[in-house]
Amino acid sequence: ETSSTTLALLLYELALNPDMQQRLREEIIEAVGQHDGKVTYECINSMPYMKQVISETLRKYPVLPNLQREALADYVVPGHPKYVIEKGATVFISVMGIHHNPDIYPDPQRFDPERFSPEALKTRDTINWL
Fold first, then answer.
1. From CA 104, how far away is CA 121, in angstroms rounded?
2. What pairs with residue 94 in β-bridges?
3. Going by C-beta distance under 8 Å and a sequence separation of 6 or more, which residues neighbour residue 110?
4. The pLDDT of residue 1
5. Residues 6+ apart with CB under 8 A from 15
6. Any coiled-coil ranges, and where (predicted)?
7. What is the Cα–Cα distance from 63 to 74, expressed in whole angstroms?
8. 3-class DSSP state of 115
9. CB 62 within 8 A of CB 95
10. Which of 17, 75, 83, 128 has its CA 20 to 30 A from that of 27?
């Protein structure tokens, strides 16, 4: 079950990073307090650090290591006019390769939810997180 696995990996990373665990705990306590002690959709959406922690967990441990797509039209690879992905060809996209590319995510093995802060998101193309 992918959700249970993702949650286990998130808890593992928080166990290794008590400062992040404490920051998230404080955010949860505050958010639940502002929503009459109820964990609702609105309550969860009011936790930006929680979203960052989940996004970083999925970056480091993607549910699928790669994606498979079919080209809908011929596609000339930019900068390489001799290379054409022909219509109907199967294309594999390495999610692990993108998420662990040090040019996109410096020190990719380090767990760092700040990679998904609003400021950090502005510096990266949205395609770099699948």
1. 11
2. 66
3. none
4. 85
5. 21
6. none
7. 29
8. helix
9. yes
10. 128
Q: Map tokens 């039209």 to a residue.
A: 73
- Count the neighbouring beta carbons within 10 Å of the beta carbon of residue 95: 18
Tokens describing residue 17:
């990073």
User: Rounded to whole angstroms, how far apart are CA atoms 7 and 109?
Assistant: 18
65: DSSP letter: S
List of the chain residues with pLDDT < 70: none
Q: Is the dihedral of CA 32, 34, 38, 40 positive or negative?
A: negative
Q: Where are the alpha helices (DSSP H) in the chain?
A: 2-16, 18-34, 41-45, 48-60, 95-99, 118-122
Phi, psi values for residue 92, rounded to 5°: -105, 130
Q: Where are the domains of the chain?
A: 2-123
17 near 111, Cβ under 8 Å?
yes
pLDDT digits (tens, 9 = 90+) for 2-30: 899 999 999 999 999 999 999 999 999 99
pTM: 0.90
How far is residue 94's CA from residue 106's CA, in Å, rounded to a whole number? 18
